[in-house]
Specification:
Elements lengths: L15 E3 L1 H7 L3 E6 L11 H14 L4 E7 L3 H12 L3 E7 L8 H8 L3 E5 L1 H4 L2 H14 L4 E3 L11 H16 L7 E6 L3 H12 L6 E5 L4 H19 L11 E3 L12 H14 L8 H13 L8 E6 L10 H4 L14
Parallel strand pairs: 2-10, 3-4, 3-6, 4-5, 7-8, 7-10, 8-9
Antiparallel strand pairs: 1-2
This protein binds pyridoxal-5'-phosphate.
């Protein structure tokens, strides 16, 4: 594929590891994990891969300021703020939720980066794109050159991050003599990761099914959203995607108590993976996705002889605001966020 311009921000390639102990504990297929939680410290997780392409576009357009949005504990907002500072840009974040007395998790890092933060309500979040446009307009009047990045950087530019990752996975599979994967599984929150993986895997001839485990909304919502994303990608880059509608596969049913809300069994699984593998999943995305994967294995969707690649998309900082919940206290959601 012809990749658009990219700036290097992520520590890649990230390793693919075999989860020996978890796989044998479950007694099912062999689970491999793509460690995209190792893309950096401040830049840990999947967002930095998308930002490599989105911020290249921002710089090309002469931006000096970036505006983006997400929940109060957004990994994407934090990664954008970190990347912005690394590039000498000013970050503006529009976050859904109300801050508590002391920031925690990603929000603490946003504060340390001295990002400009505007807190909005759940209702206002419905109009987030409009709010960001107004903010950009005001900044333009003051002489700045703002660039808006949508929620999750999941637009047709950001998608390239996971097309690139798919190519990386295939190269590793060949070089490291890894098996053909019977399935790739990721958490889906805004759809960009799943869309990019699909485009990349199909473009490089891999028919592996990609299952997104949605952590909010439902399967129908993401089928539509990912379909639209693929369409925009085709239009903008004039490249075929070789992805059919049937390729967009969601495994629904693991939103649980709601976005960023945790059930005790999800937190138990996070502890199990930490204890068996020394790997930290997060409560909002990868913990729910891994919980879904294990549950689906138990329900027989995946067979013993199969090889599954789980994409660890990061999120470690969201563990900290959950400290009381991990200790058996009530669930606080995404640190005072009222969810979606
Ligand atoms: C840690 C983590 N995993 C997974 C996702 C979901 O990725 P996407 O938004 O591309 O669906 C996100 C962000 O939404 C995330 O922060």
């Amino acid at each position: 594929m012809r990749f658009p311009k990219r700036i290097r921000l992520a520590r890649i390639p990230t390793p693919i590891q075999r989860l020996e102990r978890l796989s044998s504990y479950i007694g099912g297929p062999t689970i491999y994990i793509k460690r995209d939680d190792l893309t950096g410290i401040g830049l840990t997780g999947n967002k930095v891969r998308k930002l490599e392409f989105v911020l290249a576009d921002a710089l090309r357009k002469g931006a000096d300021t970036v505006i983006t949005t997400g929940g109060i504990g957004s990994n994407h907002a934090r990664a954008t703020a970190v990347a912005a500072r690394q590039l000498g840009l000013h970050p503006h974040l529009v976050l859904r939720g109300q801050p508590g007395p002391a920031p925690d998790g990603n929000l603490l890092l946003d504060a340390l980066l001295n990002a400009d933060i505007t807190f909005i309500s759940r209702e206002e979040y419905e109009r987030r794109d409009e709010i960001m446009s107004q903010m950009a307009e005001e900044l333009r009047k003051k002489g700045y050159c703002p660039y808006i990045i949508p929620e999750g950087a999941s637009n047709e530019i950001g998608v390239w991050g996971y097309v690139y990752a798919a190519r990386e996975i295939i190269q590793q599979q060949e070089r490291e003599h890894l098996p053909e994967f019977d399935a790739v599984v990721c958490a889906t929150g805004s759809g960009g990761t799943q869309a990019g993986l699909l485009i990349g895997l199909r473009a490089y001839g891999r028919k592996w099914p990609v299952y997104g485990i949605n952590v909010c909304d439902d399967a129908r919502y993401f089928q539509k959203r990912i379909g639209e994303l693929l369409e925009k990608f085709r239009e903008r880059y004039h490249q075929p995607t070789y992805v059919t509608e049937d390729d967009i596969q969601l495994i629904d049913g693991y939103v649980g108590e709601g976005y960023s809300r945790s059930r005790p069994e999800e937190l138990e699984l996070i502890k199990l993976v930490a204890r068996l593998e020394g790997i930290f999943l997060d409560p909002t995305y990868t913990g729910k996705a891994m919980y879904g994967l294990v549950d689906q294995i138990e329900k027989g969707r995946f067979k013993e002889k199969q090889n599954i690649l789980f994409i660890h998309t990061g999120g470690i900082f969201s563990l900290f605001p959950k400290r009381a919940t991990f200790m058996g206290g009530p669930d606080v959601g995404e640190f005072y966020d009222d969810g979606k």
